[in-house]
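Input (structure):
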């Protein structure tokens, strides 16, 4: 049976390192990092993520300032809030929680932040830096995938990597981060699926990353023996939360596999904390 990755354990290890890094700077600066979270409305699923972030922040010593604004908040009002947070030296980093009400573009709100306060690593400047292998603050989920592979001792040099999903927050930046490590990267998406080629691509993978949002789409006949499988998907079903990979079907064929829940998710939150630490470190250097 393939090894089952314990994402919670990895998250604890990252958090421990982040906590020590923060302590070191705080001893000199006298002030902890501050992460401001902005949530519009009171959607319970978004609130779950905010609570996870809050818990992780407490573990590492980040002052988590959770702000809940009216769902009727306008783009202009939100942009005004961001402008004030940009100017506030006591604020290390900002996260605007998704989903936002219709009519407010998350991308343009993020673009209005100072890139050095972008907790999620998705500001255009931070995304662009990935191309030049200069990114310090990285998109959280791709950062989590890279960390998981690194902690399993996977050297990506020359490896066949297949990423299913090409979103701007997962597949695209991850493909570039893996190219930076000299992997041979194939990115598949709905077009690949509709053309009927997706299994043939997936079967070539030494490392398969799935970030689609389709419950248990990937079966054992999609992977080759010994493939490392990273499941990013989070799907709510009648049976609870499941990934994009059919875990029971695939686990015996994989060299290792990340479960859902308890795999990529917790590591993603700790990479968010690492980003806040890096923002704070830069602002205090
Ligand atoms: P998205 O909707 O922005 O993108 C989905 C991608 O999947 C697109 O590239 C699309 O072309 C592709 N796709 C859709 N149907 C497909 C099919 N049948 N075959 C192949 N490709 C197909 O999604 P996203 O924001 O990248 O999120 C993807 C999944 O990852 C979701 O389940 C989301 O909840 C989850 N997610 C998890 C984390 C985490 O921390 N674990 C973070 C972000 C997203």
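Output (sequence):
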């Amino acid at each position: 049976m393939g090894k089952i990755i314990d994402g919670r354990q990895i998250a604890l290890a990252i958090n421990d390192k982040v906590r020590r890094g923060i302590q070191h700077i705080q001893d000199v600066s006298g002030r902890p990092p501050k992460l401001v979270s902005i949530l519009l409305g009171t959607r319970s699923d978004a609130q779950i993520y905010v609570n996870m972030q809050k818990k992780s922040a407490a573990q590492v010593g980040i002052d988590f300032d959770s702000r809940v604004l009216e769902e009727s908040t306008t783009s202009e009002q939100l942009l005004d809030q961001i402008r004030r947070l940009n100017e506030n030296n006591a604020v290390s980093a900002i996260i605007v929680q998704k989903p936002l009400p219709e009519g407010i573009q998350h991308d343009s709100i993020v673009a209005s932040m100072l890139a050095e306060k972008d907790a999620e690593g998705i500001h255009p400047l931070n995304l662009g830096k990935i191309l030049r292998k200069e990114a310090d603050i990285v998109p959280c989920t791709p950062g989590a995938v890279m960390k998981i592979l690194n902690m399993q001792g996977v050297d990506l040099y020359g490896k066949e990597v297949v990423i299913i999903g090409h979103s701007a927050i997962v597949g695209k930046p991850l493909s570039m981060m893996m190219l930076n490590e000299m992997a041979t990267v194939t990115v598949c998406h709905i077009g690949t699926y509709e053309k009927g080629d997706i299994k043939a691509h997936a079967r070539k993978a030494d490392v398969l990353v799935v970030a689609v949002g389709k419950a248990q789409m990937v079966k054992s006949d999609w992977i080759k023996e010994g493939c490392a499988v990273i499941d990013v998907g989070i799907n709510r079903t009648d049976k609870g939360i499941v990934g994009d990979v059919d875990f029971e079907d695939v686990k015996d064929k994989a060299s290792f596999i990340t479960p859902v829940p308890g795999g990529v998710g917790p590591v993603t939150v700790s990479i968010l904390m690492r980003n806040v630490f890096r923002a704070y470190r830069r602002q205090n250097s």
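Notes: The longest strand covers residues 34-40. Residues 148 and 154 are 9 Å apart (CA to CA).
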